[in-house]
Write a structure and sequence with these properties.
Number of helices: 4
Helix content: 25-40%
Shape: globular
CATH class: Alpha Beta
Largest sheet: 6 strands, mixed
Number of strands: 6
Distance between the termini: 35 Å
Strand order of the largest sheet: 3-2-4-1-5-6
Order of helices and strands: EHEHEHEHEE
Strand content: 15-25%
Number of domains: 1
């Protein structure tokens, strides 16, 4: 069985209306939520073989905070340009191309594609993922290339507002 962790970037800043979307950084709440959610993730006793992120600043910063909670250095995170504002179909392409040696992967990116991909993969019920949401999807296949619509089952779904210290 393969395990996919789908993680939406933490809350980002809109303070500079002239700043390019790609370069938006995390705001105060995002800087608080990303490491805290990383700690909650680690506390689950999960294993992640590969961290992959959109190279956009807000997504990559979220990936760094979560990876550091796992003791993984930022240079080990794979920047995948295709994940920047990716459609659900592009998400599927990225997942289908993950290395066969990897059994669990955490992917970090953006809405609306990330939520659409989760709906496609699990066929149901999550709706729009809030910022810094994390979804563990268990895949009923032993090959990333075989992952397709409806191949996943949500094992858990977590987000900052479920934790009182992040309210």
């Amino acid at each position: 069985m393969l395990t996919l962790y789908v993680i939406r970037h933490a809350k980002s800043s809109w303070s500079d209306p002239l700043q390019a979307d790609f370069h938006r950084e995390l705001n105060g709440r995002g800087l608080r939520d990303a490491p805290a959610m990383g700690k909650h993730f680690v506390a689950r006793g999960e294993r992640v073989d590969l961290f992959v992120s959109s190279p956009a600043i807000r997504a990559f910063s979220t990936a760094q905070a979560v990876a550091l909670a796992f003791g993984v250095q930022p240079q080990k995170i794979v920047a995948e340009p295709k994940l920047y504002l990716a459609s659900a179909a592009t998400w599927m392409e990225v997942v289908n191309a993950l290395p066969t040696s990897v059994r669990s992967a955490a992917l970090f990116a953006h809405n609306p594609g990330i939520s659409e991909f989760c709906e496609l993969l699990t066929e149901g019920g999550l709706g729009e993922l809030p910022t810094c949401a994390m979804v563990r999807v268990d895949l009923g296949t032993g090959s990333w290339a075989a992952v397709s619509r409806g191949a996943g089952t949500v094992a858990w779904y977590d987000f900052p507002k479920q934790h009182t210290e992040l309210q």
